[in-house]
Amino acid sequence: MNKNDLINEIATSAKITKKEAEATLNAMLEKISNALKNDESATLVGFGSFSVSKRAAREGVNPLTKEKIKIPAKNVVKFKAGKKLNSAIN
Q1: Rounded distance between C-alpha atoms, residue 24 and residue 28, angstroms
Q2: N or C: more exposed end of the chain, with fewer CB within 10 A?
Q3: Sign of the CA dihedral running 36, 80, 58, 67
Q4: Domain ranges of the chain
Q5: What pLDDT is attached to residue 90?
Q6: Which helix (H) or strand (E) holds 50?
Q7: Environment class of residue 59 by beta-carbon count within 10 Å: exposed (0-12), middle (13-18) or buried (19+)?
């Protein structure tokens, strides 16, 4: 399912227009992104939790040249599925 499919499903389920569904979805995604940017987590009870994890700088190896390279530290987004989501797919 891609974003357009999701918008269509939301519009049908909520009995709203596709424009309203798209605006709602975009607002939700923006708010989750803003929370993560501010080092907060975003929890949708039953669905799951989004959080930011800090990955430390490390040393790696270029597989082509076998040369050592430095991999910089960065923040990564993590998602942990909620109980309802897990039980829905199992």
Answers
A1: 6
A2: C
A3: negative
A4: 1-40, 41-90
A5: 85
A6: strand 48-55
A7: exposed
Superfamily of domain 41-90: IHF-like DNA-binding proteins (4.10.520.10)
Q: Which tokens belong to 32?
A: 């989750």
Average pLDDT per 10 consecutive residues for the chain, totaling 90 residues: 96 96 97 95 95 96 95 96 93
CA distances 29 to 71, 75, 87, Å, are 29, 18, 24
Q: Which amino acid type is present at position 59? A: E
The number of residues making up the chain comes to 90
Report the relative pairing of strands 58-61 and 42-44 from DSSP bridges: unpaired
